[in-house]
Description:
Blueprint: E1 11-13, E2 20-29, E3 56-65, E4 87-91, H1 136-145, E5 147-149, E6 153-154, E7 168-171, E8 177-183, E9 188-194, E10 202-204, E11 217-225, E12 230-239
Parallel strand pairs: 6-12
Antiparallel strand pairs: 1-2, 2-3, 3-4, 5-7, 7-10, 8-9, 8-11, 11-12
Amino acid sequence: STSLADIPIAAYDTESTPPRRLRLAFLEDSGTAGQNNIWDMGYNPVDSTYAAAGGYEYIYILNDDYDATYTDYLPGGSLDNCFAWPVLYNISPIGRGGWYYVEEEFEIEIFASNVNVANQDVFAFSTADYAPESSDSLMTLALDKINVFPNPFYANNELSTSPYDQYVTFTHLPETATIKIFNLAGVLVTTLEHTSDKGQFEKWDLTNASNIPVASGMYLAHIDMPDEGLTKILKVMIVQKKQILEYY
Length: 248
């Protein structure tokens, strides 16, 4: 249930000018002893050892301007809209010793350790003194990363979304490259032209230059990278499943 109660607390947003007084609420749970609607820091708890057993009073500081009216955040005791409450802070005090602190005035100040102010934090940086790094060692490292998957290809690519859409993917390619696929007899099967709009990947749909699925077997992929002056050769093992061609 909910009701109004007088509590000896006031909360202010001190970042406003003048400081803005905020609305407060507190949640009381005294277990089977019943609620007394008094913010007394659990002075009448059922169990003061285990918090979940009752005897706690949570304070909520809301992002609402304080006024003398009452906004019922729990209509009929329902928690349906509790996640929409404008809660700024929740304070869950645990008493130690006596309750002398509720008999004397005191202040609690809450500071943000890293305040982000929208539209006011501005960061500037420059890359004028920097240039892309290029060296033989970096080229060698980049060349070592170029690969193809799945390899071997056993009738299916787990990344494929259709049984008719089978392929292998070359990775870590530079912006431009020419990939020539040969069979073991040295016959050119197909040529793939890789461009920068494809990123680092290039797919081979396992067909030849006439768009006919290739036979199962070992293939050689000759990758020529003219901008880097490098080449690389990869072995690609293909095991095709039974092909049913609609047209031939």
